[in-house]
Specification:
The chain is 47% helix and 17% strand. It has two domains: 13-153 and 368-377, 2-Layer Sandwich (Nucleotidyltransferase, domain 5), CATH 3.30.420; 160-366, Exopolyphosphatase. Domain 2 (Nucleotidyltransferase, domain 5, 2-Layer Sandwich), CATH 3.30.420.150. The termini are far apart. By secondary structure, the chain is α/β, with parallel strands linked by helices. A hairpin with a 3-residue loop joins strand 1 (35-42) and strand 2. The radius of gyration is 20 Å and the shape is globular.
Length: 378
């Protein structure tokens, strides 16, 4: 029998529903008297769209529901002509899908550029590419006044916290969102929403992988990749991660560490297939360390067939096969190693013998900040 490990760290309904609702083939509202909105985000790796139903009692009762969760991988932060065209077409295509296929009016479609793109563009002096994308998108949809906000890291981190962490855990939870191009998060240290302490890193799953590949210098063997990756991660830990955690001041104040982003979804799915229906998975530092070892030494144990072999119920077995296949479609072995390695290095700063932090991987946190943005601007 499939055993479910319970967790008291529960997400709002709109995040928990997203795991199942994303597989639906049509827009099927869950609540009466609800309004449907769409958030479309250009991120470091591609373009994401979330179609969100917000009930009339959303603020007090958490009446949120994700109806659709779609993405197009375009690698925008490569800042090349092909990836620019792919990103523009992806953004335009998802916008058209929302407006024409789902019949969502333009005023309820929100379009943003993520902080990861903003930071990488500024780092490489490529901000002109972002401005060009916005301008050409406005032309393609014939909306010259369309707002496409370039979100800074602080606002994105606050929205992520508000969108992902339930209210009863808001003031003792440190949120970390590991993206493709950066990592951001933080917490509210004084028990109010007025003050937010930011946590930010210029490292994400893709940036770790890119830095590792540059160090490989033509030797593309897995052994060399692993060796160079640990050098990259050691440098990131010593120069950036330790400082960022200490500067945030979160260690003595946060009982819970919630980790979201694509790699959190991937690791949660592959490390605990028995919890396939759970939107939140509790983990330990030791578990993730063993997972990283398995990724390198025994990746066959993490294939969909291997993960589903001990699942007894047909529906759950099919869910494990489908969702783990999605993970392997998004991440290859090396990118999984890079993301899980970064996750482990961050967790290490909170894992101590004299005090135990509770770690939670959030499977659908990638749409959390967009959901909060829609709620804030609706």
């Amino acid at each position: 029998m499939l055993t479910i490990r319970s967790s008291r760290f529960l997400l709002p309904a709109f995040v928990l529903c997203g795991f199942i609702a994303s597989a639906q083939n049509s827009i099927k509202p869950k609540y009466n008297n609800s309004v449907i909105y769409t958030g479309i985000e250009v991120g470091s790796k591609g373009v994401k769209m979330s179609v969100i139903e917000i009930g009339k009692n959303a603020q007090s009762g958490g009446a949120f529901n994700i109806l659709k969760d779609s993405s197009v991988n375009t690698d925008f932060i490569s800042f090349s002509d092909p990836t620019f065209s792919a990103t523009l077409n992806g953004l335009y295509g998802l916008y058209n899908t929302a407006e024409n296929d789902y019949q969502i009016p333009a005023r309820r479609i929100f379009t943003v550029i993520s902080s990861g793109v903003k930071m990488q563009a500024e780092k490489e002096n490529k901000t002109a590419w972002v401005n060009k994308l916005i301008d050409e998108f406005r032309v393609k949809i014939n909306e010259p006044n369309r707002q496409v906000e370039v979100v800074d890291i602080t606002k994105e981190a606050i929205l992520s916290h508000l969108g992902i962490v339930p209210e009863e855990r808001r003031y003792n939870t440190f949120l970390i969102d590991i993206g493709s191009g950066n990592t951001k998060g933080g917490f509210f240290p004084f028990g109010t929403l007025e003050t937010f302490r930011l946590f930010g890193l210029n490292w994400g799953t893709k940036s770790v992988s890119n830095a590792t590949e540059k160090r490989c210098e033509g030797d593309n063997t897995l052994e060399n990749y692993n060796k160079q990756m640990y050098k990259v991660l050691a440098g990131a830990e010593n120069t950036d991660i330790i400082y960022a955690v200490n500067a945030s001041g979160s260690y003595p104040l946060s009982d819970n560490v919630a980790i979201s982003g694509g790699i959190a979804w991937a690791v949660a799915t592959l490390s605990h297939p028995e919890l396939i229906e759970n939107g939140v998975v509790a983990v330990t530092y030791t578990e993730i360390a063993k997972f990283c070892e398995k990724l390198y030494n025994n990746p066959n144990a993490l294939t969909p067939d291997a993960l589903a072999i001990n699942v007894n119920y047909k529906d759950q077995k099919e869910a494990v096969l489908k969702e783990s296949a999605r993970v392997h479609k998004v991440f290859d072995q090396k990118s999984l190693m890079a993301g899980a390695g970064l996750l482990l290095k961050i967790m290490r700063q909170f894992a101590a013998a004299h005090e135990t932090k509770a770690f939670y991987l959030i499977k659908n946190g990638q749409v959390g900040w967009v959901s909060a943005y829609v709620s804030e601007n609706k």
